[in-house]
Amino acid sequence: MELERHVLKALPTQRKDQKIVTNTYHPLEEIEAYLQELAASVSWVSVESIGKTFEGRDMWVATLAAPGGTSPKPSVWIDCGIHAREWITPATCVYGLDLLTENYGTDPDVTAFLDKYNVYVLPVHNPDGYYYTWSDDRLWRKNRMQHPGDTCHGVDLNRNFDDGHWGGAGTSDNSCGGTYCGPTGFSELETQAVRDYTNQLYSNNNLTAYFTIHSYGQMWMYAYGWGAEDTPHEQELFRVSETGVTALRSVHDTVYTYGSIYETIYPASGTSIDWSYSRGVVHTYTLELRDEGQNGFLLPADQIIATAEETWTGLIAAIMDI
Ligand SMILES: [Zn+2]
Q1: CB-CB contact of 274 with 231 (8 Å)
Q2: Does the pLDDT of residue 9 top 70, yes or no?
Q3: Preceding omega of 224 cis (within 30 degrees of 0)
Q4: pLDDT at res. 81
Q5: Is residue 296 exposed (0-12), middle (13-18) or buried (19+ Cβ within 10 Å)?
Q6: Which homologous superfamily is 28-320 in?
């Protein structure tokens, strides 16, 4: 298959008017301040809290509703940081906001993308956990909830979505486990907020694509995670994934594997992917960003820009190919 290869123009990382430095990791408060500043300075960007966490933090979503194109536009959802220690993912979402807002109207790919879709970005899906990785434990994964009767803190938010297979393969029912799925499906405020908000996008004006970004492993995946069977859309999901990984590789020659979660990484039930696919959003994908384990969750900051450039090139190429 012949694919047009276009590499997004990298932004200089030290610009005079830059609202956030993108080649370093930022604590939660700095990401929140950036989102507010972005909304205050770009007329077609708005920022709203879609819910509160157990510890009372807001879940901020940035909406990019560019002036061009024909409204109403369908929607694209992209979330980062559902697992707290995967720092490259909030950094990649932040880079994307900077890239899209700075290049709209000049870069043809960015402009076509934003003229076609309203883009909703949740840079930190798990703010309590992310905060905790800065304050106490760099390798914390889950949120910080402690349910009555539980020994330990933390539910794995990406095992807490309920598509009918909640609590199945690849989950733990022990609160001290890394993949603890919670006492019930959608027991967590963070999963409830994303469920309700994206359901609203879906019923209002069509949700064309739902992406959730993880690290690490360099993989591009889709449903199912709960079992080995193919979805009825296997060929189409494989095709769009191939578009994404091909475009991604064209930037820095980073190689991704792709396929269903179950076949590509491991069995996992109660993921946002399986849930989002099952509620009707066919083009639902999860990415595992760099690297392949050399640094793992501790990806050096000097790889942020390259990772974000290739990821957004892949994302835009894939979404425009739907
Ligand atoms: Zn993850």
Answers
A1: no
A2: no
A3: yes
A4: 98
A5: middle
A6: Zn peptidases (3.40.630.10)
Q: What is the DSSP letter of 51?
A: E
pLDDT value of position 8 = 61
Measured in Å, residue 40 CA sits from the centre of ligand 1 at 31
List the chain domain ranges: 28-320
The pLDDT tens digits for 112-161 are 999 999 999 999 999 999 999 999 999 999 999 999 999 999 999 999 99
Cα(287) to centroid of ligand 1, in Å? Answer: 9
Active site residue ranges: 288
How far, in Å, is the centroid of ligand 1 from the Cα of 2?
Answer: 32
Q: How far is the CA of 215 from the centre of ligand 1 (A)?
A: 6
Question: What local confidence, expressed as pLDDT, does residue 19 receive?
Answer: 83
The pair of structure tokens assigned to 95 is 């880079």
- The stretch 5-31 carries a mean pLDDT of 75
Q: For the chain, how many helices (H) and strands (E)?
A: 9, 8
Least Cα distance to 218 among 154, 310, 111 occurs for 310
CA distance linking residue 166 with residue 67, whole number of Å: 40
